[in-house]
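Record type: ASSEMBLY
Status: queued
Input:
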Amino acid sequence: MNGPAVDTRSELALEADARGIRDVLERYQENGWTDGLPVVPVSESIVDEFLATSPLDPDEVLFATPHLNRELTVRYAAINAALAGCRPEYFPVVVAAWKGIAQEPNPRKGIWQSTTGTAPFTVVNGPVRERLDINSRGNIFGSGHRANATIGRAIRLALINVFGLRPHQLDQATQATPAKYTAVIGENQEQSPWPSLHTEYGFAEDDDVVTSFVVRSVMHIEARHTQEAEQLALDFTDSITRTGAFIHEYTNALLVLSPEHAQVFAGAGWDKDQLRRFIFDHAYRSRGDLGRVGKDAISHHARWRLAAGHPDAIADTAQGSQTPDRVPALAAPESVQIVVAGANNAGVSAVVEVFGLNPRLRPSSYSAVEYRTS
Amino acid sequence: MTTMEVLIDPTGASERTSDMTLSLRPGTLAGLRVGLLDNTKPNATTLLEALGDELRQRHGIGSVTMYTKDYFGTPVKDELRDEIVRECDLVVTAVGDCGSCSAATVLDGIIFERHGLPAVSIVSDSFLMSGQAMASLQGFPGYDFLAATHPIASLSAEELKNRAAELMAGVERILGAEVAA
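Status: finished
Output:
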């Protein structure tokens, strides 16, 4: 550019020892204390700022894996939240996410060592979304919002650092999922036609609550073609019942509806339970469909789907029912959870495939966000 | 103003201790009671039985008893561990051929060593790193275990016999067994 030199630096322009900072970040990389991205250096005084936001004792154990001889205290959750780039005021949400994870059946039994390669997935409800700018309205699974990015990363970094779940080492995931970097969304309560997820547990709309899932994948469902509730519900159901989802006897799903899609159902007079019930009633494959892919029976001990001719095969539950040729994908309507999130600008939603071995009342766990009041 | 502070180790490793002591080795295996710990993975039983046969033929061990874990992904329960420690002089455990069970199999070996029983843990070599990571996590970096050629689950009985024979040199090394020249 020609012309007179212009000083574009504002009074806020910073000077820093950039090389010195890079040297420090390199040390973290050399130690393996990272998910690959640069981390934020943590000292005792910074940890104190995080701990000051939580009513919990720093030595309280949030999550333990006895078989790894490892446990995560509040203090180490704080260290790794700071490392992930969280602001101190995010920490109560991180703690609630850990409390949710601790109630899930599979993380404590080693699912994050498994070849399956699942990820923690967190949904945030309540006014805390506004206070912390947790994104619920547009680009929810994408990058660009610090709170979503760093709260999820705080969990992953602690799994790597405290529990030693490093790729190629204790974490033996064959491929895993990009959700492992971070997977946190807010529910778009303001643009949902229905009561929010956490009200299903008995909380009020303005309570702050975190729901924790263990997920296999986030499946993109672009469906701009219809305003008919039944057509739209069947389109989602078909994705939930892909034969690839028949891994164990049953599967689970979190339906993340854009406001526009949610409105199609609400406009037809459907509430969430009605949508769940409709999906449950239609979520099945024929025995022939499953036979063609070698999944028309289950293994006798672990109840993994396999071919009827396999030496370890026994009949699935449907085989002994009134309709043996109709094999349900879901154990119950509650196997499908529903939240509304994303921008109110198109018919684009997602089916989040939720990991589960045995049927449960609800394929997720929740925890209220607790603050220190002083 | 610049304030220099010490940066914190986010792993907590500095707060932990290590214990890298093996149990006492018997020298000769002749007459000893051998426990085989089956983690229920496919072909674990057959591989362990073949190893029992090898130990009998080569070392004249006293007895072989098969024990079975109730879940492959976590370590042996305390009751079963105590039963094996009471009834056996050494233990062989297999087969760690998945993400969680490879680590659990190595941990089983470490648990038995720390309870006074020489132990051989067998994983498949695809999961060598997982086993090594578990040993480090348990404060026993460099813990010696065996990595059999992957896969194990799809082998025939005859192939498993061969695999067992291949593993014997490693079994003898870990147990510190005297081998006839």
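Annotation: The helical segments of chain B are 44-59, 78-87, 99-114, 128-137, 157-175.
Annotation: The radius of gyration of chain B is 18 Å.
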